[in-house]
Amino acid sequence: RDTQDVVRWRTDFPILESHVHERPLVYLDNAATTQKPYDVIEAEARYYRHDNANVHRGVHTLSQRATEDYEAARGKVQRFINAASPSEIIFLRGTTEAINLVAQSYGRSRLREGDEIVISAMEHHSNIVPWQMLCQQTGVRLKVIPINDAGEIQLDAYQRLLGPRTRLVAVSHVSNALGTVNPVQTMIELAHEIDVPVLLDGAQAIAHVPVDVQALDCDFYAFSGHKIYGPMGIGVLYGKTELLNTMPPYQGGGDMIRSVTFEHTEYNVLPFKFEAGTPNVAGAVGLGAALDYVGNIGMETIMAHEQNVLEHATSLVSSIPGIRLIGTAREKTGILSFVMHEAHAHDVGTILDRQGIAIRSGHHCAMPIMDRYGVPATARASFALYNTRFEAELLAAGLEKVIELFNG
Ligand code: PMP
User: Fold this and answer.
1) Catalytic residue positions?
2) For residue 331, which of 70, 153, 134, 93 has the smallest C-alpha distance?
3) 226-263: per-residue pLDDT in tens?
4) Which of these, 241, 274, 282, 294, lies nearest to 79 by C-alpha position?
5) Beta carbons within 8 Å of 304's beta carbon, 6+ residues apart
6) Residues 142 and 166: beta-carbon distance below 8 Å
7) Cys staple from 201: which of 172, 261, 315, 397, with CB 3.0 to 4.6 Å?
8) Is the CB of 95 under 6 A from ligand 1?
9) Which pTM does this prediction carry?
């Protein structure tokens, strides 16, 4: 049965009280974005009510307060992922912008024609396309690690791809289309043996598994605030100081400079060198509140709960005739991707929506993985800390209804 804990957590999220098509909302689209607790909504509102001003520039009180709020949020991110210093935390719009920054700043300044970047077959488009753009600009080549039928990276093939021309490995920590948790620790160790840095796309990991960038020893880590109960439009690039210091700025503008003349500009120190223009201060404040919220519950507790819901949902859904699960890795987070013999994923999504159940259907911005499994799209239910075993049962009942409708 569902625990008192999850019943209590649910009351922290106002949107979970809503109804859709006159049914209580069952929100199972958390891999696309998570809902926000009062703490986050209030933190952002409080910032705008009491502290709003531009940061880093003014001597007046509000500007100083806004700067303190913004830098305090950076400190919260640093502690949450255990970075060595707050200056290794760069606030950006999200995972997408973080990966583009590394591709354009690190990639363009360091990589030459014939160099190789290794990604995996399960990447989100935002960890494919920025590298393809770099390939077009520089003649760098992309190498793709294959996966097995369960949706797991093939480590032996990965090892064979690492070679004298490899300059960077960029892989997802957790796959958004399959839920696979990748063996990133081993992958990083193997890359470091030949001095190749590793970027982790942490968009799907940050809210579901503990992330310690120093223990992982990853060189870059990218994530989005909105996937961990924080606001949209704020995200983070973590990078090791020694790497970030050698990289040129990504964008030019205010705040990223120390001095400017028409002949010459001296760039600011980290992290400001990579934060051109007025930042999303309210977003950073909201993200800080989200990390506090998650930290108070504890990642171990969240993981245990989400695994419990995932196991229940997996056994219920996989026993429905005509359903094929896509992604059955041993190490998974709360993502259940499947196709139905009777119905296209979009029909499944539409029929479930009539019952108040929100899932995603489509290619999940990972079209190559759809090709890998020979399907045009999947239906995907994805869980967060506020989802219940009861909701997993509603999902299964909803899917039975889909079958009835199509067979009826
Ligand atoms: N990588 C993965 C694995 C994702 O799931 C997502 C979001 N669906 C992204 C990158 C991109 O994140 P954003 O759109 O927040 O930049």
Assistant:
1) 365
2) 153
3) 999 999 999 999 999 999 999 999 999 998 989 999 99
4) 294
5) none
6) no
7) 172
8) yes
9) 0.98
